[in-house]
Task: inverse folding
């Protein structure tokens, strides 16, 4: 397997949607290719960081204000 | 009365189905539950597309109002959330077009870019690299980094990787094909990785002649 072929399967590998045979092939490539191992690990880390950090926090007062507006409008008939 | 039973028979119905049914029969408190359940995600998506706080607030409000108005059109053959996201994405794009008059704004154009298709930065990252920054610094880095991506990449990444929608659900809420979502997701992930590398990669230990290093 070449690095390009590995890269084409990167998302499937991350999302765990590869067959057992394919996974073995990908693992074999990884064992001998530090570059692809770094790419896989750091891409996983990228996703994990974005998943675990809210970058657009919604302030509670905004939440309450919007809720009130929505419920008011809906009660009058949207 | 028309029902959606035929669609949801095989699997356990999603809890939102019952809430939607309650709203349709006039129970407004059920809609409040739906709003509270999804307002954060809708606000986040609107922020990612409009990149403007004021617009995101308006989009969130308009999307929930529009969803309420159109609830009769919701057939239940997709998840309520997927349907809601589609409304919010359209509202966000409309808002964006208003701000950038004359400039086409679209998330379905395929951006031809080579960036990120081949990983260039191959240095490994420090273990737990985010710990080298304060929460505020990290949030700024993450915002700045994702803002540099084309809108169509950003929103696919957020829906798939942050919100946890499936590829099919992402395609449905954005009106894109499954292959288009897949291709954007890979490029978005690789571009973000490449851009974050400059902050997170392992620092090289300087080796100077005659200087004894404490690092082994």
Result:
């Amino acid at each position: 397997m070449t690095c390009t072929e590995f890269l084409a399967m990167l998302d499937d590998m991350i999302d765990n949607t590869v067959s057992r045979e394919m996974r073995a092939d990908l693992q074999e490539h990884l064992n001998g290719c530090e570059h692809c191992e770094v790419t896989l690990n750091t891409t996983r880390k990228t996703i994990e960081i974005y998943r675990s950090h809210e970058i657009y926090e919604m302030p509670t007062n905004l939440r309450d204000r919007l809720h009130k507006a929505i419920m008011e409008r809906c009660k009058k008939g949207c | 009365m028309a029902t959606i039973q035929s669609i949801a028979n095989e699997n356990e119905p999603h809890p939102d189905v019952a809430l939607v049914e309650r709203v349709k029969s006039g129970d407004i408190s059920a809609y409040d539950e739906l709003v509270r359940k999804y307002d954060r995600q809708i606000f986040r998506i609107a922020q990612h597309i409009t990149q403007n706080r004021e617009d995101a607030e308006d989009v969130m409000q308009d999307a929930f109002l529009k969803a309420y108005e159109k609830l009769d059109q919701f057939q239940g053959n997709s998840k309520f959330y997927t349907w809601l996201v589609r409304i919010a994405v359209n509202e966000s794009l409309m808002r964006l077009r208003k701000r950038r008059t004359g400039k086409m704004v679209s998330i379905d154009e395929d951006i031809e870019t080579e960036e990120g298709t081949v990983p260039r930065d191959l240095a490994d990252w420090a273990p737990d690299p985010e710990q080298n920054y304060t929460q505020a610094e990290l949030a700024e880095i993450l915002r700045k980094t994702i803002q540099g991506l084309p809108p169509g990449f950003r929103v696919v990444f957020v829906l798939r990787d942050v919100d946890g929608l499936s590829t099919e659900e992402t395609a449905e809420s954005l009106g894109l094909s499954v292959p288009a979502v897949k291709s954007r997701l890979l490029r978005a992930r690789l571009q973000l990785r490449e851009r974050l590398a400059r902050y997170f990669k392992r620092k090289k230990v300087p080796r100077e002649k005659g200087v004894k290093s404490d690092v082994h």
Notes: The domain at 3-76 of chain A is CATH 1.10.10 (Arc Repressor Mutant, subunit A). The mean pLDDT of chain A is 88. Residues 34-52 of chain A form the longest helix (19 residues). Chain A has five helices and no strands.
